[in-house]
């Protein structure tokens, strides 16, 4: 695969601290491998291990480590948000990421565009109960609101059978539909990010 100048950052929004095994970590690693196959460099951040303060400002003051993570998000062309399902909802860690991204609504570039307009976002949702479609919808709406662009089929997921305890990380192999969804997500995200890099959104009139 050809090398590109694009980069990707994957946010693992598990509730489990490293080095505890995490299904979100597994799918993040699978997706990172897919992006690497397209020539992209990237990293995975386990957000629960970063001191992200509650709030909706870019910097919440002493001890808040969000500003450093924010810089990494802004330096990346593609953002991947991976979250488990708890009680039918995304994790509280994922929700906090969205709340902190809310601050970017007031940040603009030199052309007057919201600062996140040139970046692509995709999602991965895991759990052993249903809820992935609802969580994906919530994530995509919020990420779009703050300025990210989502590609076609830019969400991958896996749900185990209801009332059972099997986790994604415990499967003997990745189910073929999930592997296909992962590959489509990666392929379309790279394609869209390349298009946005070549042809940015128009400048805000009067800026």
TrEMBL record:
Residues 8-151 form the NADPH-dependent FMN reductase-like domain. It comes from the Bacteria. Pfam families: FMN_red (PF03358). One of its GO terms (molecular function) is oxidoreductase activity. This is Flavodoxin family protein.
